Amino acid sequence: MNTKSISFPNFEGQQLSAKLDLPVDQHPKTFAIFSHCFTCNKNLSAVRNISQSLTQNGIGVLRFDFTGLGDSEGDFSDTNFSTSVDDLIAAAKFLENNYVAPSLMVGHSLGGAAVIFAGSRLDSIKAIATIGAPSDPEHVQHLLKEGMEEIQQLGEATVRIGGRPFKVKKQLIDDLNQQAMYPLLKHLRKGLLVMHSPQDKIVDISNAARIYETAYHPKSFVSLDGADHLMSNPEDSRYAGTVIAAWAKKYIKEESKAPDLKTDKDVVVSIGDKGYTTEMLVGKHYMVADEPEDVGGFDFGPSPYGYLTAALGACTAMTLRLYADHKQLEVEEINIHLSHSKSHMEDCENCEADNQSKIDHFDREIEIKGNLTEAQRNRMLEIADKCPVHRTLHEEVKVSTKLK
Q1: Residue % of the chain over a pLDDT of 70
Q2: How far is CA 186 from CA 17, 201, 311, 312, 338, in A?
Q3: Side-chain half-sphere exposure of 315, counting CA atoms within 13 A
Q4: Which of 161, 201, 331, 396 has the most Cβ atoms closer than 10 angstroms to its Cβ?
Q5: How far is Cα 80 from Cα 85, in angstroms, rounded to an integer?
Q6: Could you give the CA distance from residue 40 to residue 297 in angstroms, rounded to a whole number?
Q7: Does 190 map to a domain?
Q8: 58 falls within a domain
Q9: Do 242 and 351 belong to one domain?
């Protein structure tokens, strides 16, 4: 995805640090805002993975740090649930002023409760997705139980959340107690997707049941079976993002005044700041490349050599089909079985003295189903070597590279 580092002001004029994730080399169909969990930040792996899944489906995503968290300005101890909702509305206004108003909001944990409150106040929001969200914002108080007595007595306390110290003031508790989600849910009238894991030990799945039962239609529920609260397994967050993108298509409008991202190249490839997962836009077709887990990847797609091998196979099959159609041969199906390896060179003229040089070796086996004579089959075997990709691999290839 194409990621831009930006900032925008909250209603107090403090700058909130954000990332704007855009689809690779194409206009966003619409924009979404991601609301992270309590005391988390925009760079949580689950947030990045869900955002990437959305951009792969043409949705631009604004993920940002709430006031006083991550790289955003402000003092966390002076914030509360209401200021987080205000931050979300400020994010929506930024998108409306600079791109187009967002139509989708996604919230994780307490951020899920926040998008329900914020989304109910924004006419442009047509769909809201929550992940592991509490049915009442005050539910977050259980994270503060170690300092609750001190907060009530002294008005503030330093508590550890997720292993990090945070200064919490009584006004946060008072604000949480004043929030009423159920009246909003009964009159929301926006597409609502509730996602929750039965194994969530932080926010029990009964919260999802209460949200779903209270909300007015249209509403949907998806179980994130096996996921923990923070979705630490990348497969869980990628699955959630893919489901949200598919579900949201029913509600979002495909419009954007974002700058044209297209280039004059046929293929655009993009990789983020972590891992090997790579997005590729080939014409109008989106694909993902990755490395296997045993070499540090997530195995979310074929390796580069996997794509190269597949290109040879696809070109071979198309060439044979073209020949069979031209000659009006009775060919029902063509299957190409391939493997790639690097082998020691044999009988080469320019081998190193220690004979350690290697060449790429593609092993190709062709299966042709149809009513053909032995001569016709042999001729098709000859034609296979004439496919354009095969010929390219045998020709001298020049790659010109420059900085953009």
Answers
A1: 82
A2: 33, 27, 53, 56, 57
A3: 17
A4: 331
A5: 9
A6: 25
A7: yes
A8: yes
A9: no
pLDDT tens, 50-83? 998 999 888 999 999 999 888 899 888 788 888 8
Q: Are residues 237 and 109 part of one domain? A: yes
Mean pLDDT of the chain: 84
pLDDT interval class at 147 (50, 70, 90): low
The more confident residue out of 404 and 310 is 310
- Any idea what the CATH number is for the domain that residue 385 is in? 3.30.300.20
What mean pLDDT do residues 358-387 have?
Answer: 91
C-alpha closest to that of 106 among 181, 54, 57: 54
Instruction: Using alpha carbons, select from 357, 362, 366, 359 the residue that is nearest to residue 340.
Output: 362
Tokens of residue 378, six digits: 């042999």
| Domain stop point among 202, 233, 248 | 248
Residue 333 CB burial class (10 angstroms; 0-12, 13-18, ≥19):
exposed
Residues 75 and 223 in one domain: yes
Residue 130 lies in a domain: yes
Q: Per-residue pLDDT for 190 more than 80?
A: yes
Count how many domains the chain has. Answer: 2
Q: Is the pLDDT of residue 351 over 60?
A: no
Residues 325 and 187 in one domain: no
Number of Cβ atoms within 10 Å of the Cβ of 399: 4
Global pTM reads 0.67
- Residue 133: half-sphere exposure toward Cβ, Cα within 13 Å: 31
Give strand pairing partners of 363. Answer: 339
Strand blocks (E) in 173-302: 191-196, 219-223, 267-271, 278-282, 285-289
CATH number at residue 166: 3.40.50.1820
SS3 state at 81: helix
Domain match, 234 and 375 both? no
Q: Is residue 205 a contact partner of residue 233, using CB atoms and an 8 Å limit?
A: no
Is the CB of residue 69 less than 8 Å from the CB of residue 76? yes
DSSP conformation letters of 318-333: HHHHHHHHHTT-EEEE
Question: Under a CB-based contact definition with an 8 Å cutoff, are residues 31 and 248 in contact?
Answer: no
Q: Give the Cα separation of 107 and 128 in Å (integer).
A: 8
Return the closest-CA partner of residue 297 out of 272, 319, 328, 332.
272
Distance, CA of 220 to CA of 130 (rounded, Å): 11
Query: Is the domain of 58 the same as that of 198?
Result: yes
Quote the domain boundaries for residue 380. 304-394
Same domain, yes or no: 310 and 225 = no
pLDDT above 80: residue 155: no
Task: Note whether 10 and 146 are same-domain residues.
Answer: yes
